[in-house]
Fold:
Amino acid sequence: MGIPIRDKRRKRRRSYADYKPSSRKSRPRDDPFRIAFYLVLIAGCLWIYFNQDTVRGWLGDVVPEGQQAASAPRVSTENEPSEGQSEGTPSPDDLAQQAEEAYQAGDLDEAISLYQEAAQDAPNTVEYPFQVARLLLFQSALQYGDQREATIKEAMDAANRAILANPERPEGYAIMGKVLDWDGQPEEASNQLIRAIELDENYAVGQSYLAEALLDMDRWTQARETAEQALALAPENVDVRRDYAYILENLSEYAGAATQYEAAIRIHPKLAYLYVALGRTYRVLGRYDEAFDAFFEAQSLEVDSAMIPFEIGLTYESFIGDPDSAMEFYQQATDLDENYASPWLRIGTLRYYQGRYGEAIPAFERVLALDVDSNDLYYQLGLSYANLGQCADALPYLREAELRIEDDEDVLAVVQEAIQTCETPTPTPRPDNNGTGT
Structure:
């Protein structure tokens, strides 16, 4: 299963303030007559069970094998529609089971859709909107820009529904905390997560989500301790392993982070974003072949993700030193999403340093059109135009760069020299006595 809402979590301890002793008086349990009565009753039931045909003959109501008597009550099957549900329509439990199967197969779109349908049919069941919000966050891990913002907003709506479904359960507050943290609001996130843990102090997922929020508030020691508590409670939970890996990664303990990401993948081997996180960790460790293996596995799971080929390109460029291979994957990323600014910026930068200014300029212009603000972008674009002798196009970018990079003396000197060159008028040849230039 996914997040252990019921079966994989330790038994939940309710507040002692809610405890009420039983008012029923106890009775003696060693009465010999009562024991004898129960033994006779059990023996009689067993005899009837193993002699059903004989009993039917006595009653004069023999039913042919494989056919149910018309007067017998109809037994409800698992898929039988409940009251108010049309026959043949799957129940919320059926939908949730299908959603879980899709999730285990790595089909997050289908899993989210099925959990949403289950949540609509069972609005008081907290697990369904909880899972919707959780899986939307998984999707957002491989998104950027407006798409990611829209996914986070959708996850927040689902988290609200989880709280409303049952305010006495911790899951809704926990997933709301997770969403808020991924939305860049760790303080607000911690408030929600503390409330979840107050409802169930042994709720491992709540502890794990809180650990990540604490890290994002720079409370590193407390974050680590909280993550270790969560791991002790639920070592087989994929969220717990991932969050602990994230904390170790941000503490620069990359070997430990890789171990935890590997453990998370063993629990759920079909989540692309885990492979991307593992690949990033491997490349910092210098384990480049393993990093590529992780990225390519992620790509096989999410073929439409532009972020994955970008990460492969970045590995070739910044860690391997192979700009040609990097360029291939950056181009692949832009083919998948022409509005993804990061690969366009790297394409422009690579071409700039290769002296291929005519190819750098359209890439840089594309980045600007996507509203990316970068100091390097302005001076590289300005110098690219200047090196092609297009001073009218170069000067606006060079002047903007001059204002932005005033603290970088080396780059500033190059920019100011280019400005001076572009602003110096080209001398006009003077005619000589014969009417020709001198």
Observations:
- Residues 1-29, 61-84 have pLDDT under 50 and may be disordered.
